[in-house]
Amino acid sequence: MPTQEITQITERIIERSKPSRESYLQRLDDAVSAGVNRTTLSCSNLAHGFAACSAAEKSDLSGDTVPNLGIITAYNDMLSAHQPFERFPDIIRDAAREVGGVAQVASSVPAMCDGVTQGQPGMELSLFSRDVIAMAAGVGLSHNMFDAAVYLGVCDKIVPGLFIAALTFGHLPSIFVPAGPMTSGLPNDEKSRIRQLYAEGKIGRAELLEAESKSYHGPGTCTFYGTANSNQMMMEIMGLHMPGASFVNPNTPLRDALTKEAVARAFQITQAGNEFTPVGRMIDERSIVNAVVGLNATGGSTNHTIHLIAMAAAAGIKLTWDDISQISDNVPLLARVYPNGLSDVNHFHAAGGMGFLIKELSKAGLIHDDIRTVYGEGMESYGIEVKLGEDGTVVREKAPDVSHEPKILTTADKPFQPTGGIEVMKGNMGEAIIKISAVKPENRFVEAPAIVFEDQSELQDAFKAGELDKDFIAVVRFQGPKANGMPELHKLTPPLGVLQDRGFKVALVTDGRMSGASGKVPAAIHVTPEALSGGPIAKVRTGDMIRLDGEQGTLEVLVDGDEFAGREAVSADMAKNQHGMGRELFAAFRQVVGRADEGATVFHA
To answer: What is this structure's pTM?
Structure first.
């Protein structure tokens, strides 16, 4: 049973969500009743749908007894995390034939790499790509040829977008199939050190590129614990992965065995199987709470304070920043994975990984054990270690009672810190999110004069010019979803980290994002209302004293209240952000996107 605090938060979400959730479930039931099979298609419709299939597959799909599995894939060979998916459709089709079914690629979806676009104009498309991915997957599934779907995706916006699509087509059973992290390369602390040396001008581009290439060196997900790996954690703790699937390296026999197993299971949970499990029924308020608990227990990505709200809304569930913050206050930090520690996700997996984490959270009453999963009822089946059997199939053993490496993964009674570290900040500058789990306690409170920037390059230029060797709080505004798509500002971490290491008290306040790699510098991010909407952040002037208190969750400009209220919000010329690298294609998105604390989505209930 969950603790009283987790139970109360869940009950509050359920009560708040009742009207929208009931409406969603009614639409789901109507879709099931209308026919989750090909009998609803005319002969011409059906002929188009299997025209490229083999004769045997055409015969199978002509009736309504052989289930058809839709594959939604985010494969491209530019992203290391998604390149392994090139092989997956063949694996899935073969596995489908082995269990008497058919599988077709229903659609491919775009997948961009934030690591490539950091600090570049293309980053301004990144957040919006989540909603594009949801729509692209929806186009593929709209053919109504499928009895279930498998989703192949890993990285930052891809999994949230696929999740939104899956819940939009909630009458279909769905399983998420990951590709796994790349093997470990250059240690993360060494990578950070090299970046700071480059920011200081002490090494050149050649040395930096060599270090980066040693860090990001092969197929698979980046190994630090950013948004991509937080995605995998959440899919498993919500029961959308096969147990133990999240962090097995790509192109290994165990990874392939897990993929084949997921296909067989997908057919078992169709209407043609014995355990019909439409994903919209499976995922409920308890599942979403489990995802938030996992996010806090592992020190996960701040991006999910935006994504989870949009993801939950796709199932008619109303999640808020206060819910996330209150769960954080009641969930201890159990994992130390970079940037919250020095180890990477491969070390986390070797220490016991998701199985140990889930078992420990369950024992402490911090997750809902009784949720439905793609594997069956309850989370007990996920408290395991996964291995390859002698016959090439997946073998699961109970997770250990003791972590294999207590410095990376610990128990709930001996946590690394008593709370998860994701907090809502409130004050006369609006509301914001801060992740303090990677920030040393002595750096969590900063009171210093503001230096206002309206572009991240302005801050970098000021640093290079030696103008920032002092205590200050950088206010980087006009970076919200309506302004320019809310890009990540991760390129600001090295210069601010250098200044902090020099002994200065520094912090960042922005209506932009700071990425899943939010690190050692205190950062109040996702400030809402954003500057372009006339939020208070647009009234701040250089020289204003700002108090940022990560422990107390306050963000205030220390200006007389009447004076601050009487100030006019400044405006900014956003013309340079409207064109180039495809930004002109997203003008309509910028006009209709919602607030950060509402999921920064173009989909509105």
So the answer is: 0.95
Exposed (0-12), middle (13-18) or buried (19+): which is 58, by Cβ within 10 Å?
Answer: middle
222 appears as a binding residue in the annotation = yes
Domains of the chain: 4-183+218-398 (no CATH), 422-598 (3.50.30.80)
R_g of the chain computed on alpha carbons: 24
For residue 164, CA distances in Å to 202, 303, 315 come to 45, 15, 8
In this structure, are residues 498 and 199 in contact, taking their beta carbons and an 8 Å threshold? yes
Q: Are 179 and 81 in contact (CB under 8 A)?
A: yes
pLDDT one-digit tens code per residue, 544-565: 999 999 999 999 999 999 999 9
Q: How many residues does the chain have?
A: 605
566: Cβ contacts below 8 Å, ≥ 6 apart: none
Q: Report the alpha-carbon distance of residue 167 to residue 29 in Å, rounded.
A: 13
Amino acid 216 reads: Y
- Residue 113 counted as an annotated binding residue: no
Q: List 397's β-bridge partners, or say none.
A: 385
Q: Any residues with CB less than 8 A from the CB of 379 and at least 6 apart, and which?
A: 237, 239, 290, 358, 362, 367, 368, 369, 370, 371, 373
Would you call 320 helix, strand, or coil by DSSP? coil
How far apart (Å, rounded) are the C-alpha atoms in residues 282 and 277?
7
Q: What is the pLDDT of residues 525-539, one digit of tens each?
A: 999 999 999 999 999
DSSP symbol at 183 = P
For residues 164 and 485, what is the distance between their CA atoms, to the nearest angstrom? 19
Asked whether 373 and 385 are in contact (CB, 8 A), the reply is no
The separation between the first and the last C-alpha atoms of the chain, rounded to the nearest angstrom, is 33
